[in-house]
User: What shape does this take?
Amino acid sequence: MSAYLIFIRDRVRDPAALAEYGPLAQQSTAGHPVTPLAFYGPTETLEGAEVDGVVLVRFPDKAAAKAWYDSPAYTEARKFRHLGADYRVVIAEGVD
Assistant: This one.
């Protein structure tokens, strides 16, 4: 069953740290079965607080999503995301 990682950026705090994060996060996907579906495109908030940006990526299953998220390469990249902005990150399992 597909799994989706949803990154919701609420607020940027350090643009330089996010500039470091981007290339590292991109490189960390090498060898992982990830399909980008939405990447900081226009958003419209229908309920709740406004968001600054959204990324949606698909993996074949939850185990694959967690394997990438917990990988050494993404763990290193994630440090810069934490320094650069406030995010919420969610894994949602799809339906077959």
Summary: The longest helix spans residues 15-28. The beta strands are 3-12, 35-39, 53-59, 85-93. Residues 1-36+61-96 form a domain with the Alpha-Beta Plaits fold (CATH 3.30.70.100). The CA atoms of residues 29 and 68 lie 7 Å apart.
